[in-house]
Design brief:
alpha+beta; conserved putative lor/sdh protein from methanococcus maripaludis s2 fold; OB fold (Dihydrolipoamide Acetyltransferase, E2P); 4 domains; six-stranded mixed β-sheet; six-stranded antiparallel beta barrel; 5 helices; transmembrane transporter activity; signal; MdtA-like_C; MdtA-like_BSH; MdtA-like_HH
Length: about 400
């Protein structure tokens, strides 16, 4: 009886197993679709965006050379002046009187030359016949020499008085745009005063002083020496204005300072820009894009394909053998537009995954295709992700 029950139970289990085997097993899920970009080598300009300040090509602070009261101002504030143009007049009555006094003293000294000269000549004749003593002749000759020296001194005094009188008319030392007048007619000015009367700036061309860290300069020079980077021709510079727009003119690098700022560890670079329309104003803060050189045989990877791991290291996912995902640790140099210059970790021909990275793990088998948004060719084949979605819709 028990033996019969056992065989009956075994027959039921076999029947259930056969019934289950008769049903179809569920299909395996398709591999996830990813968008990939095939990397290649190309030339890439090395751009560096640096902060900078604009300064005038020439600047002159107009200061008085003498003391006096301003009588007139002869320019329009904010206008353009030419070198030598009359700007201010200082009351010159005291200086005209000083000049007249110096001229009178010169005339007096010139008159004394004749009398002392004649006396010295007479004594010279008389000392030959012992009519006067040698001492008297020496005194007469010295008096004549002193008279001539006094004339020279008085001529210098006349010139000094004339210079001071000329300083009562203050002229523009350079051509350019003149600022506001800090003093008005009737104000007293003094020699060596701290505040200028006004300032003139030449701005048809301007300087842009930018700062770059010494470490970046050393890295660039070492990379050029090692090869793979060519020096930029003419060192072109582009300006980004405070409102974010790009200045239409292009500048040229003039020189780099010969010392490093001990407080910041930076080196000052000076560029010159045309400014015919006066858009660039001295003191304006700008950003300068400096083309330092060109990297040959560079690998440019879309920024969407480069991420950071928990330790902050740059990583990339690539499609390897048998369409399996591989993780690479990479080293990036700088950004060129929306791409990174990769110096190690990737090579030409690698298929970099730029789309479909969410929850993607190394070793996963994927279906690579053209990306939807990153470097997608117009009118090309439908991206793999879109194809997968379309096939899924047809299956349902």
């Amino acid at each position: 009886m028990q033996k019969g029950n056992f065989f009956g139970l075994l027959a039921c289990v076999s029947a259930l197993a056969l019934s289950a085997c008769g049903q179809e097993a569920p299909p395996a899920p398709p591999p996830p679709s990813v968008g990939v970009v095939t990397l290649k080598t190309e030339s890439a300009p090395l751009l560096n965006e640096l902060p900078g300040r604009i300064s005038a090509f020439e600047t002159a602070e107009v200061r008085p050379q003498i003391s006096g009261v301003i009588r007139r101002r002869l320019f329009t504030e904010g206008g353009t002046v030419q070198a030598g143009q009359l700007l201010y007049e200082i009351e010159d009555a005291p200086y005209r009187a000083a000049l007249a006094q110096a001229q009178g003293s010169l005339a007096n000294a010139q008159a004394a030359i004749r009398s002392t000269g004649l006396q010295a000549q007479r004594y010279k004749d008389l000392v030959g016949i012992n009519a006067v003593s040698k001492q008297e002749y020496d005194d007469a000759a010295a008096a004549a020499q002193q008279a001539r020296a006094n004339v020279a001194a008085q001529q210098g005094a006349v010139q000094a008085a004339q210079v001071n009188q000329n300083f009562t008319r203050i002229r523009a030392p350079i051509s350019g745009r003149i600022g506001r007048s800090l003093l008005t007619p009737g104000a007293l000015v003094q020699t060596g005063q701290a505040d200028p009367l006004t300032t003139i700036q030449r701005t048809d061309r301007v300087y842009v002083d930018v700062t770059q860290s010494a470490a970046q300069i050393i890295d660039l020079k070492q990379a050029m020496k090692a090869g793979g980077i060519s020096e930029a021709q003419g060192a072109r510079i582009q300006l980004i204005l405070p409102n974010g727009s790009v200045y239409p003119g292009e500048g040229r690098l003039q020189f780099a300072d010969v010392t490093v700022d001990s407080s910041s560890g930076a080196v000052t670079l000076r560029a010159i820009f045309p400014n015919a329309d006066g858009l660039l104003l001295p003191g304006m803060y700008v950003r300068a894009k400096l083309i330092e050189g060109e990297r040959t045989q560079a690998i440019l990877a879309p920024q969407q394909g480069i991420s950071r791991d928990a330790r902050g290291r740059a990583t990339a996912m690539v499609v390897g053998k048998d369409n399996k995902v591989e993780m690479r640790q990479v080293t990036v140099d700088r950004a060129i537009g929306d791409k990174w210059i990769v110096t190690s970790g990737l090579k030409p021909g690698d298929q970099l995954i730029v789309e479909g990275l969410v929850n993607l793990r190394p070793g996963t088998v994927v279906k690579p295709g053209a990306p939807q948004q990153v470097t997608a060719p117009e009118g090309g084949a439908k991206p793999a992700a879109a194809q997968g979605a379309s096939n899924a819709g047809e299956a349902h």
